[in-house]
Design a protein that fits this description.
heterodimer, A: alpha+beta, Beta-Lactamase, Heat Shock Protein 90, 5-stranded antiparallel β-sheet, 12 strands, B: alpha+beta, Sodium/glucose cotransporter, 2 domains, 4-stranded antiparallel β-sheet, 3-stranded antiparallel β-sheet, globular
Chain lengths: ~350, ~575
């Protein structure tokens, strides 16, 4: 069990080295923070057989590992020096002493030439010296992993931004339709019109509340309800809604605005184009450690080829909402939790999403 | 006939509600109705259905029948366990949001590598517990229809697997809630009717203070070959083989040991002191009604047994994976606590009435001493009544037993399959179904081998494993910020490893008597303290700390807002 591997054992074989690097890239994949810095420090100790390592960000120490070393005030100074010089091409050795100890510290920069985000400080055991070439290679490896993580992060931000843009873009359209429908009701059914306006206000308030990233299935269903209430004002009885919700699914956490865009897609691209009345069904099922949610309509369906190309990123589609939900689910829960869409021209559409009952925060 | 119909209708109801449950539960076009969470009381019904297992329903009366009042402590142990679960675990685990125990350990300790290790403990504990349920199924079906033992095991194992893998868990909270009513009625009805009999003054017909004897002429079928000890000589009618000779007709059996062949049928005359099979201790009424003494518990150490099983039951319940997950259906920690309060109000009366069925069985089913099939004790209470009323009571009791092993088997199989598919392999619904089948087939296969092992031994092993591995992980993880990865691993290796080892050694019969049986057969007395001590000791010496521990503790222990949203504490 690697948990108990001696810190100073070094590598017995290449497998250990690869395992350590693999653990490193997994940790760094979630960005540069305390946890990944701790993993970086542990890996550097293992790979270089160092006695102590400190990982810093611009403003101070993030994590240390190995033997207790009094890093002192000098560490901030060294970090500053290295970062200001931007000498990422080569690690530097600093001679560092105070009343208790005299040590040599090798310092390498993490991040890119243009954008250094931190440093790694290495102290070797008594009598050994740090191989600067090795440290350099290791620091570059970590840096490229950090860049990858940043890329992944921006992919998530892009999906978020896309969804927000979608909201902003759709809203005028949706608002116009909703307001026209309500205007038609004001004289004939003022009570209904008033309650619709209240529902619309509530829907808009909830939708634009951006602070809260997570919600529960139960709350998301209520949001879908107010959305459908407004759509019904326009469509009247043109579609029927069926719900099949296992109570076990209700407390499950999911990203805010996951089910609603799917329902909106079913109405705008499935049922709206369909001649005659249609049916929309929303189902949630318990499946042990996960739940499955289905949003199904018997509308006009989607051309599967076109959809596949769009989902692989090689084609264009009007179903941007569904794609954004797919991207968000994949980035939150992993690729295994992407949407499954079964559809065909004039065969309706069934979107299936799976959610784990527990997501670590 | 009536009891068989009753059992079949419980089975049919389970299948029907499981598959159609969703439609029954929340099919509506009203979002407000659909998004209303399960009421804490109904969820308490479901928790009760899950918790009232064949282990208690059949196992406790069986042990009471043989050993008497000592076994009341087992129920006290479970009650303590449920109380501690309610007070210390239900709400924090719910607030943390984890569904399975391995998930909790991974999330709390930031240790993905520990997850499969903990999952293994979950599988082991569930597996022994499931074996006890299948054993119960085999016994009930055999008592009712007279089929061989394996029929019940295979039928119930397959049924639960088919049900779960074909979407039968859609309405599991509702199904288990309904099953609770059957289980509770199965105990309440005999309790009430026998109480009426008692207060009518017919007390001798219900309990005996002497050595048990056949009250009336009784025909007993010895399915398995058995060696028994007959206290007094008796003239019997027998068909089959006795002492190696084929017999067919009247026969005088001398006092002493006799070997009875399989499928032998003996008709005992009224008044005969019942024979006791090997391994079933013969206690007179006074010894039976007094605690401790010379009882053959834990190899002749009843005091050790009492304390060790008290610990195993109390801590084991806190670590049983299928109980903790049921609180997930509550939307908040507060609701989880409310559920657990209602649940206590349901399980305590059940535990109060349950042991009486074992006491009644001393009069109602004395033949069980001779056949050794004491796990059928609960089902004999109907024999105290003649004719149709007796059959109706047996029907109610049998239906309760069926509900007990069905609900608990489903819960355990879900826990096992979840651990395999979700915590060890990658997640996915097809994966979960395959895991259900794998778990069911392995359990059926091993279930066929445990015919001669008492339900309570199986439960004891399961509880010891859960009490020495899962329980300390949860308790220390929830209540002690200093608990670390290495501490957790050491807890599982030491507590889980030793208790599993002890159980396996006992199961294969490597120990035969005295203190070895006590120490290895009921290991919780030493493995539980050892597991806690190891976890604490290793964590204190460990310099690694779990990052973000303040955040995690705030998540577990601070109340949520009224709408269920967690007040997010500032991250450092």
């Amino acid at each position: 069990m690697s948990l108990f591997r001696s810190r100073r054992a070094g590598f017995s074989n290449r497998l250990d080295a690869l395992t350590a690097l693999n653990a490193l890239s997994a940790a760094v994949g979630r960005g540069f923070n305390q946890a990944s810095a701790a993993q970086i420090a542990r890996t550097v100790i293992q790979v270089l057989d160092a006695s102590a390592v400190a990982v810093t960000e611009r403003s101070g120490v993030l994590a240390t590992a190995g033997d207790a070393v009094d890093w002192g005030d000098g560490i901030d100074e060294r970090t500053r020096t290295v970062l200001e010089r931007r000498r990422t091409s080569r690690p530097t050795i600093f001679h560092f002493e105070n009343e208790r100890q005299t040590i040599d510290v090798a310092v390498a920069v993490l991040g890119t030439n243009d954008d250094p985000i931190g440093t790694v400080h290495v102290v070797m055991a008594e009598g050994q010296s740090c191989d600067l070439a090795e440290l350099h290679q290791l620091a570059s490896l970590i840096s490229s992993q950090l860049q990858l993580a940043e890329l992944e992060q921006s992919r998530v931000f892009a999906a978020e931004a896309e969804l927000r843009a979608l909201r902003a873009q759709v809203s005028p359209h949706f608002l116009h339709n909703a307001l026209t429908a309500i205007a038609g009701l004001i004289n004939s059914d003022p009570t209904r019109a008033r309650s619709l306006i209240a529902t619309l206000a509530e829907f808009l308030r909830t939708t634009f509340r951006e602070k809260k990233a997570w919600t529960t299935v139960a709350e998301e269903l209520l949001l879908v309800d107010s959305y459908l209430e407004i759509e019904r004002a326009r469509f009247g009885d043109r579609f029927e809604v069926r719900l099949n919700i296992a109570p076990e699914a209700l407390p499950v956490q999911l990203p805010f605005l996951t089910i609603q865009p799917l329902v909106e897609n079913a109405i705008r691209h499935g049922l709206e184009a369909r001649p005659g009345p249609g049916q929309l069904s929303i189902m949630a099922e318990d499946a042990g450690p996960e739940i499955a949610i289905y949003v199904e309509d018997d509308g006009v369906g989607i051309d599967p080829e076109q959809l596949r190309e769009a989902m692989e990123g090689t084609g264009e589609t009007t179903h941007v909402g569904v794609l954004a939900v797919d991207t968000r689910l994949r980035s939150r829960f992993g690729d295994a939790y992407g949407l499954t869409i079964s559809t065909g021209a004039n065969a309706g559409t069934k979107v299936t999403l799976r959610l784990p009952k527990y997501t670590p925060t | 006939m009536i009891p068989t119909i009753a059992v079949l209708s419980v089975v049919a109801m389970t299948l029907a509600l499981g598959t159609l449950g969703l439609r029954f539960a929340r099919t509506t076009s009203n979002f407000f109705v659909a998004s209303r969470s399960v009421h804490p009381v109904w969820n308490a019904f479901a928790v009760s259905g899950e918790a009232m297992s064949a282990a208690s329903y059949l196992g406790i009366p069986a042990l009471i029948l043989v050993f008497g009042v000592d076994l009341l402590w087992a129920l006290v142990g479970w009650t303590i366990g449920f109380l501690m679960l309610s007070l210390f675990m239900a709400a924090p685990v719910r607030r943390f949001g984890s569904y399975t125990i391995p998930e909790f350990v991974e999330g709390r300790l930031e240790a993905p590598k520990l997850r499969p290790v903990v999952a293994l403990m979950v599988i082991l504990a569930s597996w022994f517990f499931l074996l006890a349920q299948l054993k119960g199924a085999g016994v009930v079906v055999r008592e009712l229809i007279g089929t061989p033992y394996w029929v019940g095991v295979v039928a119930v194992g397959l049924m639960v697997a088919v049900n779960l893998s074909s979407g039968g868990m859609r309405g599991i909270t509702f199904v288990q809630g309904f099953q609770f009513f059957f289980i509770f009625l199965g105990i309440l009805v005999p309790f009430v009717v026998v109480s009426v009999l008692w207060f009518q003054g017919d007390q001798d017909a219900i309990v005996t203070t002497d050595f048990p004897a056949f009250v009336e002429s009784t025909t007993v079928t010895y399915d398995r070959g058995v060696t028994f000890d007959l206290p007094n000589s008796s003239t019997v009618d027998a068909v089959g083989a006795i002492d190696g000779r084929a017999v067919d007709g009247s026969l005088r059996l001398s006092a002493g040991r006799h070997v009875v062949g399989a499928e032998t049928i003996i008709t005992w005359p009224a008044g005969t002191a019942v024979p006791f099979a090997d391994g079933v201790q013969r206690l007179n009424g006074d010894d039976w009604a007094a605690p401790l003494g010379e009882k053959d518990l834990s190899g002749g150490h009843p005091l050790y047994f009492t304390i060790a099983s008290l610990i195993a039951n109390a801590f084991g319940i806190m670590g049983m994976p299928h109980i903790v997950v049921r609180f997930y259906t509550n939307p908040t920690g507060r609701e989880a606590r409310r559920t657990s309060l209602w649940f206590m109000a349901m399980i305590v009366p059940y535990y109060v009435m349950l042991p009486l069925l074992g006491a009644f069985a001393r009069v109602a089913g004395p033949d069980l001493f001779g056949t050794g099939a004491v796990d059928g004790a609960t089902l004999t209470v109907g024999r105290l009544f003649d004719g149709i009323s007796g059959e109706l009571i047996t029907a109610v009791v049998s239906a309760g037993a069926a509900a007990a092993f069905l609900s608990t088997s489903s819960g355990l199989l879900i826990a096992m399959a979840g651990a395999v598919s979700h915590d060890i392999l990658s997640a996915g619904v097809p994966q979960f179904r395959r895991a259900v089948w794998a778990g069911a087939l392995v359990s059926i296969g091993t279930g066929l081998l445990v015919e001669s092992i008492n339900i309570n031994s199986l439960i004891g092993w399961s509880s010891s494993i859960a009490a020495s591995s899962i329980c300390p992980l949860l308790v220390l993880g929830i209540w002690w910020p200093g608990f670390t990865r290495k501490g957790a691993l050491a807890t599982v290796v030491v507590g889980g490893g030793l208790s599993t080892l002890a159980s396996v050694i006992t199961m294969f019969g490597f120990v035969s008597g005295g203190w070895a049986v006590a120490i290895l057969g009921t290991p919780a007395l030493w493995t539980v303290p050892l597991a806690f001590a190891t976890g604490i000791g290793v964590s204190m010496r460990d310099t690694d700390v779990v990052l973000d521990i303040g955040h995690k503790f705030a998540l577990m222990h601070l109340p949520e807002r009224r709408d269920g949203a967690v007040i997010e504490p500032e991250r450092p």
